[in-house]
């Protein structure tokens, strides 16, 4: 049981690292990406009873919001890795294949498009942004990269320690 939890955590962290490397590449190419401090700000307002914001960038800053945002980002990555193992089966990490991982990764795009963006003031499917379709497609690609990262992280874990 402990070994399974460690494996899932490593897969989630690895996949999130791959997604972050992708986001760094996009930033270097001039493509805007999410500021994780805003995730921390949103999470920091939850205990205060505030779920929805008109614009998270204009919300009151929260102490430690950048660190909180990054911790939340990685915790979500681990949770999505657990979801993959639940959906693909407990044997999947021992013999990982790309298709279930990429499909789960693509499915996780529902979280930002239907929960995070509306809660942060961007609207469902980013409809309150200047370029909703572009933002949705960018999110879909980013989560596809995360899904492929789930596969790569699981394969690496199996290769070096599984």
UniProtKB/TrEMBL annotation:
Q: Does the keyword Translocase apply?
A: no
List the transmembrane segments: 6-26, 67-92, 98-119, 140-160
This protein's source sits in the domain of life called Bacteria
Q: Which InterPro entries match?
A: DUF2938
**Transmembrane helix is among the record's keywords:** yes
- Entry keyword set: Membrane, Transmembrane, Transmembrane helix
The name this protein goes by in its record: Permease of the major facilitator superfamily
